[in-house]
Amino acid sequence: MKALLVESHEIAPEVRHFVFEVPDVAEFQFSPGQFVSITEAIAGKEIVRAYSIASEPDGTNRFALCLNKVSDGHMSPWLFSLEPGSAIDIKPPLGMFTLRPNERDVVLIATGTGVAPYRSILRAVLGKTNRRFTLIFGTRFESTLLYNADFQHMTASFPEQFRYWPTLSRPEASWAGRVGYVQTHLNEVIGDRRDVDVLVCGLKLMVDDVRARLKALGFDRKQIVYEKYD
């Protein structure tokens, strides 16, 4: 399946938001939280990389991705070099990192570009369900809080349904929000509740730590949905 780059722009240092369209379909269908795999022959070797979709299904043939540039990588520098109109090869969306079909409230935990699938999920469901969501998003610096304005807008638009908790591990003196790793705020957001689902996406060490903490708190593994990367 071919996808064409519509546009891309920087949303943080070395991080870009890409918009693609799939010309062979009228509507690009996927479930919020899923990913697409991109295949490309680079330096004589076929490279395959999976990236979470950062946009909601909107009835069009477009979708968005968010990725950081890995300087010594293969795929991301190539994607960063593309101009509008460039074609890429993708496979149809896959993945089970999606909301479970129940009415539980949801805690979303992310670091870095692991926040991308939550943008897709939240844009798709806020205002259309009674479920309440809390997003704990951790980065090093305020400048790397991806889609920060989007999440703040969601908070203002759906104050009874969505809470946004950004936390910085290396804050500047002017930062007045939460500090530390996402794990340090886990007990605060969950409290005594054990009737919520928890989605965790980000670096392997963070995901494994959060899963262990949740299990120690008595969460059933079916309540914990995770996706991790190195």
Q: Number of DSSP strands?
A: 12
User: What pattern of helices and strands is seen along the backbone?
Assistant: EEEEEHEEHEHEEHEHE
Helix content: 10-25%
The CATH class designation of the largest domain is Alpha Beta
Strand content: 25-35%
Q: Given the structure, what is the number of helices?
A: 5
Span between termini:
27 Å
Which stretches of 5+ consecutive residues score pLDDT under 50?
Answer: none
Q: Determine Rg (CA atoms, Å).
A: 18 Å
| Largest pleated sheet | 6 strands, antiparallel
User: In CATH, what is the homologous superfamily of the largest domain?
Assistant: Nucleotide-binding domain of ferredoxin-NADP reductase (FNR) module
Structural category: alpha/beta
Sequence of strands across the biggest β-sheet: 4-3-6-1-2-5
Topology:
Elements: E1 2-12, E2 15-21, E3 35-42, E4 45-52, E5 62-68, H1 75-80, E6 87-90, E7 106-111, H2 116-125, E8 133-139, H3 148-157, E9 162-168, E10 178-179, H4 186-190, E11 197-203, H5 204-216, E12 224-229
Parallel strand pairs: 7-8, 7-11, 8-9, 9-10, 11-12
Antiparallel strand pairs: 1-2, 1-6, 2-5, 3-4, 3-6
List key phrases describing it:
Rossmann fold, 6-stranded antiparallel beta sheet, 230 residues, 6-stranded parallel beta sheet, Elongation Factor Tu (Ef-tu), domain 3, alpha/beta, single chain
What does this 3D model show about the protein?
This protein has 5 helices and 12 strands. By secondary structure, it is α/β, with parallel strands linked by helices. It has 2 domains: 2-90, Elongation Factor Tu (Ef-tu), domain 3, CATH 2.40.30; 106-229, Rossmann fold (3-Layer(aba) Sandwich), CATH 3.40.50. The strands form 2 sheets. The protein has a 6-stranded antiparallel sheet with strand order 4-3-6-1-2-5. The protein has a 6-stranded parallel sheet with strand order 10-9-8-7-11-12, sandwiched between helices. Strand 3 and strand 4 form a beta hairpin. The radius of gyration is 18 Å and the shape is globular. The chain starts with a strand and ends with a strand.
